[in-house]
């Protein structure tokens, strides 16, 4: 079995960089553009707080759908599982993440899960706070603690773009409001959703988030339980079944540990009790997932025996 | 943390038996009827081959959808992952297991995964053998080896009932034939499908199958790799995302290890590297899963720290 | 064969009033409420400008979906058929009028036809005018001419209610905007849509609109072709296939001439070259159509041999 | 206004023959092949029994979906409207004629209407007779009377091909059987369905069927009411809303009288009280309708003022 090292990760970046040509950088997202087509970076942190990095580690990108695990984490802590899952389901779905039909076709008009856009917008409506601003600051504060990075901020140009091209998400929010399945103020929920999508991260920040989950909701060397252990098991189960859009089954098979991707080409991964991993590779496939990032995670899983379904883990 | 023992399992059976009143025994399945409403049984085997049992351990039931993991296992061994997943997808789906619409709505008209009826019928068409009889005997032979039970047989009355009330499955098979997405002989594929659904098991047989998977494809105390380790990781990932019908997400969250259920009220579970588990509880909920069985697995996961997403496993 | 007379219509009202107990008055629409449960009224005008009336002829109600034929008529006149039907289809659809799934499932994401909400909102975006106000005034002006009623106005309380409970329609508008299938300003299109839904009519006004269509786009005793004859044939064909929500097939069979209903319980009908008919009966069935109104039209068709598919018309 | 004559029809054939290059002859149907790409023929009979013909009037073709109006006509006569429409709906549907999803998505799992394959198969199960053979003979006997052509027969090679490539229709039949929405013997219903699809016609035979409907269910110069007048109004309404696959709305707008097409490129049309029309043009568009045939009907409607929605008919 291989061992993690900076050199090892560097080799992987070199080996899988050619795959970046097989995807496309998401159009219309400020910050990333065609110049980032071949970027590929990774950070990996173990439970001894040892960090390994390679590739585009300085690249800053917006969270996009990775924010869905942040908002779910906060909502679970705010309200508990029972209340959260009265509003949003926890079942995987075979359709695209921005589908609206699934809200119409199921009897209760509830989003299938918190990883699809409708679900994440609904989750945003649950987070505690007297205003969008206050809710956003609570999330930012949590993220700064988890990443141990006081400089986490959001990218206003991305936020403005999200609002400008947000009609599909508006449709989802208004549809949910119309059925009464989710009692939300559409514009407020969308505003928070657009803002957290616009938070800027590096792969190390991603890896810190992954590590926090992998460590069961505590910072390393700290006894404070910031988020309940049980909630994070729930979060990981949902990442495993639904975290990679309608390629989640493929990742469960090929990678075998919980991941969540964003259309910026980022992926945050959790190997419970072992690693937090962050990957960036802006060239994404037609499902919305980083092409190079997916290949690297598959290889890591195999080389380091990280597949949760392995009998010899 | 609790430890497994016959007494512990007996306590669980007693505690959760009242839940059997909340489900219904599947109508029209010979063998099981309303007299089995309150049956509840479990067997659990660890890697030292120690077996623990309680409740309705003598009850014989037909595999029903549990057969879907058997046929997938054999097909993967026969043809490899590439070929199998050209025919059937590996993505979870939010709809009911016997849905036909999903075959029409996706561009390639392929079953979403091998755990839905259409997928399992397609998988049956892939298994090697010159005749349905030969294919069936290969599967039976494999099962006898895995369960170490030469007496495994199929229940002809169930098989006849499956054929008699099999029009939904016929529709699925003929539909797949009509689109050409799956090159199958509908009647042959259905015949094998109906037969393996009719195989009779006890909870110990189920637990043996679970243990074989948990042990990575070898019998305990044997070095022969009967099924590739990688194929069984694939199988478990698919069980995790799709094994419990459209309640799979719920089981991933609440139980956190791979399970596969059948409408006979049986569930086979795998805790990789640790346990094989078999449960029977014929009273099923509207999703098709054993009510009492589900509650017991949830409790076991919690008591014994079996959730794969736990950081302290 | 019967002949139309006030007495004859009065008999029909008496005979079919009991059917008003089988429907429900649309909740949340100002103006009409449970006190209107048993209202039933009809006006019928022939090509000699002879008007026959009976029942609740003074009852004022909002157009609701009847406005869909007004906006289509104006859009056809403004832009011609080619342009209009590039934006909205002309095919009937089996689903409910406020469905959003159909926009997602068809390849071009176009509304199926101008009689479903999405289609009517799209049509509103096509009507010429520099502002919503100007477009609305053009429509009002046309309606005043057609009905020969200078007092036609809109009900502000209905308009405000439409806006307040309009989230489903907002979802439709934003969804269309998001796919780019319809180049519309969602809020402007919705504003016009809500306004024309709120226009107040009586059954005589409805009958005048029907008569105008039945006369091929001219006022009686006037040579001016206000709307092209061909456009009105198109309009009638669409009313016939899609005018009565997902009960359109049933009305084509039972009534056999073009009709358009609104959830206020109104129906406008056209017997080409013969009659314009207006009906009001606020008690509607689960499809959205006036229960008593439907029965009266079915009887009229039979008594007066109005079915277009009759060989002896 | 133009008048019908052989010369006039000949001009139309010449003018619209170029459109035959824009379609494709249905593959896999014996009898018609690429040699028939440019065939185009028409027959038109008025109420004085005057027949006008031009083009490929000798071409023999199989009825295909035109048979759906024959079986509906017989079923209505056998059982009455109430019973027939308890089994099959009468609402148009926006999807393709061979769709299976619509059976799953609606609550009662009933075919939307008798013009889609599922509906027509269900209708076949209703027709009276002790055997498929007897039912088929009853239909043939009716057709021979209506067409005044004792030589009407079915093409065994087409029938065999229908059976051989009939898996989609088998899926529909078995699906309906599985839901219990239609109490049918799938193989028997399919056998009758395949046989009547294989009946050979010429355009004159088609026109005779159209004329019979246009005359309200009597042969010209005969007082016997073979099929009830009301049933034929129902049939025409269903043709108008659903007869031309998912191009029915387009035909209602462009042509404006009831038509029913088959994938052999045939169309039967009814102008109530005036004409029966038969058209053949094997080159069909992607919706399944004859390209040249559609153009000719549109022109006829306009030239001869046949649109039922015309005020001056």
UniProtKB/TrEMBL annotation, chains A, B, C, D:
Gene Ontology biological process terms, A to Z: glutamate biosynthetic process; L-glutamine catabolic process
Reactions that this protein is recorded to catalyse: L-glutamine + H2O = L-glutamate + NH4(+)
Pfam families: Glutaminase
InterPro entries to which the protein is assigned, alphabetical: Beta-lactam/transpept-like, Glutaminase
GO molecular function (one): glutaminase activity
Coiled coil: none
Alphabetic keyword roster: Acetylation, Hydrolase
Entry keyword Acetylation: yes
Binding site for substrate: 65, 117, 162, 169, 193, 245, 263
EC number: 3.5.1.2
Domain of life: Bacteria
HAMAP family: Glutaminase
Family: Belongs to the glutaminase family.
Subunit field text: Homotetramer.
Protein name: Glutaminase
Source organism of the structure: Pontibacillus yanchengensis Y32
